[in-house]
């Protein structure tokens, strides 16, 4: 099995998530950027967002 850079990231999901594993996971990247992926299919890769994009997203969902 090959490993991708995403394998070494510290992924986390909301404590509000249920055991079904239908969640968005987030991992920190250098410079405050974030990696976002679907926990149902982590092999599909992740979306990289800048620190300011992450902040804007959080501001919209609060």
TrEMBL record:
InterPro entries: DUF397. Residues 9-61 form the DUF397 domain. Pfam families: DUF397 (PF04149). This is DUF397 domain-containing protein.
């Amino acid at each position: 099995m090959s490993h991708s850079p995403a394998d070494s990231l510290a992924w986390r999901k909301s404590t509000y998530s249920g055991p079904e594993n239908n969640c968005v996971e987030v991992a920190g990247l250098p410079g405050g950027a974030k990696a976002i992926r679907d926990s149902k299919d982590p092999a599909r890769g992740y979306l990289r967002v800048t620190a300011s994009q992450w902040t804007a997203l959080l501001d919209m969902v609060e």
